[in-house]
Amino acid sequence: MKELKHLMDGGFDAQLKLPVFQCKPGQSGNSNDGNTAREAFEKFEIFAQILGVDVDLVRDLHYLIMAVNSTLPLDADEFDADAASWLDRFHNSGISWNILSPSVHLLLHHGGDFIRYFKAPMGLFSEEGPEANNKIIR
């Protein structure tokens, strides 16, 4: 597992020019954040190659994440169908080294329920608005 992580770290650094699992100087935490993930998913072909998984799996997860971040209305049943299709492909892909993170599990298993429950598009509930106000509040 350590050898695989080391190979992936090198791929992120060399091919995507993204520092992963690196401490932020003078700060707590590491370089794995939303911005790093967005940049990796934007280049999903290279990202999939580094991970050693099917490019369709990475691309389609990117599309599902973009859908819930959208401020456009979504069809909950269609989202559920797309998420179920992705989950089937993921579980049948033979990726034995990885499990779904709690956030991805929540998105794919319960995203349709969130869409049904909240009457406004899910993208409107992001942290971007409140975070943008931090500079004004200071």
Question: Termini, distance in Å?
Answer: 44 Å
Tell me how many strands there are.
0
Choose one word for the global shape: globular
How much helix is in the residues? 55-70%
Integer-rounded radius of gyration: 17 Å
Counting DSSP H or I runs of 4 or more residues, the number of helices is 7
Largest sheet: none
**Element order, helices and strands?**
HHHHHHH
Average pLDDT reading: 75
Spans of at least 5 consecutive residues whose pLDDT stays below 50 are: none
Give the amount of beta strand, in percent.
Answer: under 5%
Based on helices, strands and strand pairing, what is the structural class? Answer: mainly alpha
How would you sum up this structure, described in words?
- By secondary structure, the protein is mostly helical.
- 64% of the residues lie in helices and 0% in strands.
- Helix 1 runs antiparallel to helix 3.
- The mean pLDDT is 75.
